[in-house]
Amino acid sequence: MTTQQLVDQIHKKRSFLCIGLDTDLDKIPAHLKQLEDPIFEFNKAIIDATHHLCVAYKPNIAFYEAYGLSGWKSLEKTIEYLNAEYPEQFTIADAKRGDIGNTSTRYAKAFFEGMNFDSITIAPYMGKDSVEPFLEFENKHTILLALTSNKGAFDFQTTVSDGEELYKKVIRISKSYKNSENLMYVVGATKAEYLAKIRNIIPNNFLLVPGVGAQGGSLEEVCRYGMSENVGLLVNSSRGIIYASDQADFAMAAKNEAAKLQSQMAVLLESAR
Ligand SMILES: O=c1ccn([C@@H]2O[C@H](COP(=O)(O)O)[C@@H](O)[C@H]2O)c(=O)[nH]1
C-alpha cells in the first residue's frame, strides 16, 4: 500500500485507528476454544466487527510465535484473510526485527513477500545496514522504534550523547538511509510531550503510536503535538479493544470500543482542517 492510499483511507473513514491483534488464548471467550483454530476465529470476528472503524491492524508476532507452528498458521490465516477480504487495511507485523544485512533481508522476505504485510516494526540498534534491506521493498514500510511507550524507554532512548538524545539521533540519521521515504516511526502515546520535537525533525513521516487505552496515553495530546498535514498518525489500541468482553458478545464489545475511539478521531480530524 502506498502512503497516499493510507491517507485516503484515513479521510474516507475519518479514522486513524490501528487495532492490535495481540491474541492470547487465556483471554479469549471460552466457547471459541472448542474450535479448530481459536486464535484465527477470534481475529476474524474482531476484524469483521471493526474493519469499518479502523485503517490498520497490527498483529504482535509474539502472541503467535508463543504457540509454535499452530500460532504461525493462525497468523498466516489472519493476514491472508485481511488481504483477501479487506485489502484497504494497512497491515503491520509488529515483529521488532533487525539483524546483519543478509539476515534482515530474510526477515523482510518473510514478512513482505511470504506473508504480504504492508509494514514491519524494526529495532534501529544495529544501524544502517540492518535497516536498509527492509527499505528496498516497493510500497512496503519500515517502522523504526524511536521513542517507545514503556518506562524502560528512558534507560537508553532519551540519554544524551554528543548533545543529542538517542531517539532524535535515530530519527535524524535514519533519514539519510537509502529509500528512507519508506520509513515510519514508533512513538509511544505515553510520551506525547516529545512529539512536537519529533515533528521538527520529521514533519511528514507517519508515526505508529501505541499506548492509548491499556497504557493510559492521551489521544488528544497525541493529536495536538503529533498530527501533521497528511495526518501522519496511526494510533494503536490492542487490549482496550479486543478484550472489552470475554463473553459471547466480545466482537460487539470490541466494535463499541473501536467506535468510541473512531468518533473521537473524527472530531480531532475535523478540528485540524
Ligand atoms: O513502544 C511500543 C511499541 C510497541 N508496543 C506494542 O503495541 C501494543 C500495545 O498494546 P496495548 O494493549 O494497547 O497496550 C502491544 O502489541 C505492544 O507490544 C507498545 O505498546 N509500545
Would you kindly provide a written description of the structure presented here, covering whatever features stand out?
With 273 residues, the chain is of the alpha/beta class. It has one domain (3-272): TIM Barrel (Alpha-Beta Barrel), CATH 3.20.20. Helix content is 45%, strand content 17%. It has twelve helices and ten strands. It has helices at 3-13, 38-50, 62-65, 68-85, 101-114, 128-135, 153-156, 166-174, 195-201, 219-226, 239-242, 250-272, and strands spanning 17-21, 56-59, 90-97, 119-122, 141-147, 160-161, 164-165, 183-187, 207-210, 233-237. It has an eight-stranded parallel β-barrel with strand order 1-2-3-4-5-8-9-10, surrounded by six helices. Helix 2 crosses helix 12 (250-272) and helix 5 runs parallel beside helix 6 (128-135). It starts with a helix and ends with a helix. The mean pLDDT is 97. Bound molecules: the ligand O=c1ccn([C@@H]2O[C@H](COP(=O)(O)O)[C@@H](O)[C@H]2O)c(=O)[nH]1. The ligand O=c1ccn([C@@H]2O[C@H](COP(=O)(O)O)[C@@H](O)[C@H]2O)c(=O)[nH]1 is lined by residues 20, 22, 60, 94, 148-149, 186, 188, 210-211, 213-215, 236-240. Keywords: Decarboxylase, Lyase, Pyrimidine biosynthesis. Pathway: Pyrimidine metabolism; UMP biosynthesis via de novo pathway; UMP from orotate: step 2/2. It catalyses: orotidine 5'-phosphate + H(+) = UMP + CO2. This is Orotidine 5'-phosphate decarboxylase. One of its GO terms (molecular function) is orotidine-5'-phosphate decarboxylase activity.
